[in-house]
Amino acid sequence: MSGESVIEFTGFIKACRLFRENRLAEAEAVCTNLLRKNPLDQATWALKMQCLSDSTYVDELENEDMGLAETFLDQNVIAPNARPGTSFARPKTSAKGVNPILRPTTNAGRPLSGVVRPQSSFKSGSMDQAVRTARTAKTARAVSSTSARNMRLGTASMAAGADGEFVNLARLNIDKYAADPQVNRQLFEYVFYYLNDIRVAHQIAGTASKAAGFEDYYWKNQLAKCYLRLGMLQDATKQLQSSLEQKKLIETFALLSKAYNRVDQPMAALKTYSAGLEVFPENVTMLTGMARVQEALGEYDESVKLYKRVLDAESNNIEAIACVATTYYYGGKPELAMRYYRRILQMGVSSPELFLNIGLCCMAAQQFDFALSSILRAQSTMTDDVAADVWYNIGQILVDIGDLVSAARSFRIALSHDPDHSESLVNLGILKHREGKIDEARSLYSSATSKNPYMFEGNYNLGLVSFTQGKYHECRELIEKALAAFPEHEHCKKILNHLKPLYESI
Amino acid sequence: MAKPVNVNQSKWTVPVLLKECEIYCPSTCVAFGPILSDNDSKLIIAHGGHRGVNMKLKVFQQLEQLSESSLADMPTALVHFINDLSSIPSIAVAAGPSLLIYKNLKPFYKFTVPSSAINPTESEAWKAVVNKKINGDTLLTVLKRLEDDVAFSKLTPISQTYLRADKETQVVLVEHYGTKIANSATITCIAKLTKSTAEPLDILVIGTEHCEIFLIDSQAFTILETIKIGSVPVNICAYGTYDVDYRLFVQTRASLIFCMKRGEADYQPIVISQSMITSMVLVNKMIVYTTVENLIHFASFRGKKMNTVKCPSKIKMLEPFIYPLKQLAAVIAVFDKEIRMYNEHYLLDTVQYEKPLAWVKYGCYGREDSTLVVAFKDGSIAIQIFRRKANFDTKLDYNQVPQAHALKLQIPKKTKVFIDLTQREVQLGNRIHKVYQKNLFDVKYRLAASYLELTSSASATVSTTTVLPVEISVDIHGFGPTFRMTIHLLSSSKQNLYDMHLSIISDPELYDFDTPLIPVHLLASGQSYSFTTLLYCKDPEKAANCDVRALLVHAKRATPIVTAVIKMPFSEFPLD
Fold it and tell me: Which CATH architecture has domain A167-247?
């Protein structure tokens, strides 16, 4: 056995192979060594930039984090008083009979979706509300104008610069490198993803696009990404449309729809997605995007139909499975929802939320042996951010079982994990109310409504207490708020009808 | 005067009052039909007058009274019928036990219902009193005894009157009627039935107080059939022809409706109503009847209830409405100041009047096929015509239920998985229960453990002890690096709480506080207190954040009373 010699790669080839095998850190180390020997080696330089930017790569399509300022100080919205159903801000009227009692809502007053995504926490209401409530405790929502993810990306560059920053942007001749088609893509991605310096990235993309004679769709897309990050949505739309004329790409369609969503034009976004579907039939990205928009508009039937199409195309799409499961659960078929959640479990996801959902489905489908064990599992694996929800659901189950003392305790534990958990506050209030401690119940309801003013239950229950105590004025205000969340609620209307003659008689 | 309220949409023309007339009569004493040689349909009314005075048979043409003739007895019902194909039709007025037949508005014949058997004791007593063998008082005692023995209604009309009359009248009664005592029953209702389609003669159907129904040949006035039923008939509706097949629907005083078919001998009620039936008509092969509970029932000829209308107020009477040109059929229900038209599914029309109504009659008047004669309580009579362009396109659901009630519950279908799971429950019930009990114990154990931890550390925003029920909530205002922290405290304990402190704790590397320890001298029950402090983020560039805790502590307690844990937001960079 003599002739067999192991081929040992060295130098740039080695770095390339390591990069191919996605061993980014090792590839980067090799590049660093090479650059020490020859700092002017452009190929190595580019490869190192590629390694660095790949390590912090974020799918720009899913990056929906918006800060407080972007959410509320938004001058991009075209129609402030949109017709119902054509705006995310006014989905309520077209939400076909969605009953907040049957399908609970989030803090922002939207019905729960199957998955948590930044988009689903779009906030309706005033900025004042957001400033006051959002930051009192642990919420996932970024409150300041800088969102958590961008912050982390920005800090990454500082940590890396142990022996000096790799590329010093201030001293880099941007015009020269940006015009060089050999390295400009790597440079752009490095600046955009790794350094997170959008202004420079925009400069690079602009120069590169010009150098390519405004003929390169790639640079148009990159420019659009920069504009999206900078909040210049009109420019982003223009770039993307021009890019689509040159080449039809999935990414372009998706980015264009995203831009439309940001300016609150869901109908235009839907149109773009369907145009994309014509070019790329049954494409998962398009279908998922459409489904999300429909869900945000309150068209659950449409949304679930689209998610089912997603599942036909890609049967392991977790978002689609979860959304379909949620719909089944709230549609009164928990046993089917359980099957879907079990499928997610089989695909290797095991989060406390998933176990909790399986537990709740089992409970609703009367599979008591699995119900409690799944919930126990969720409880033992839960992280701090879901602890309140887990305890709240344990409380709900204990209410179902009939152990009200334990239920009250578990709501209290939920509140210790998240003092803003308004559902727990309301349910604790109801339990106190049953015990006859009206004042305690009242204070619990009122803190629930102050923490989540869009909540139907809190407003309604507090309204009821006020009604029985004869505080009619307060009651009317609360009931009107409750009706805003659930316009069809019969009892609210009855109470208002009771109050009307009292007002008229004065 | 009697204008309907909304004229524009009305299906009826504006009512026109008849000139100079004042009519008081029940709705049974009204009929339409040609009675003179001009073949024009007239309005015939048997006017009841006042207490037996001024009883008249009146005939109207157009808007004027054409003629009137006196009536000898109080009319109960009136019918217009054809008894001779070659000559003009006649009128039959039921008064007491007799039918008075008028032809060409002149008295023509008097038919009296045959007398039933008189109780022998009764007739003997009367004979005796006429022959002066006994006096009036003895007669009274005999009759009273008879009343207890056989029942009041079984006595002859004259005995009934005698029992209820005062002394002087009794003497007069004996003088006038004592010799010719008869037991012919009073006619309660009258109807007509066509003999056959080829020979359009009418058969008269009359019901009497003696629970009998007679079918009378109107040519020779011979009784064709006698039917005995169990209750007093008060209203008869006839359907079909006598020679081929007919049905008589008889409403009785006992709130039963009987159906009599040709060739059947045994009559059972087809409708047995719990509440009193007030009116009955036939529309479109349906029996429509009303009860005192303000309900209109639509029933099939077999008595099966098809639909029920709930009306807002008392229904005075029903009148059938048939408009053959457009094949419209409905029932007119008369209320106090309005009429409503219903069919078996919908409310079709409502007409309102300014005066209370007495009755309405629908039929052919003059040359107009569909005329409605409306009589008011004050005696005036108005005439309305159904517009030729009117239709029943706008329909309203009667029994309008609120929509929430009309919605059906969406009960999900049973899935196969559900059935499988149920099967599993049946097979493994025992084991499922055991596992469930064990897990429930586990859940409760963990809950207890967590709660114990919570109470011992008092890291809750709502106090867990019942001795010191205090609630805390914290707001953070600002974007950084300077934040304002506002702490709200609310005590719901019975006594005021004294001498406590609010302590604010966090990582000293990250935040600086203006006042880390705030004295809380007094917490009055039910009052909300707020305390404020500024906090500075030392190094926003680090972009780190950590929890800040606000504790309410008391010098004599080892653990804090309540705790608020706040996750601080990322700080903005300072504005320079």
Answer: Alpha Horseshoe (1.25)
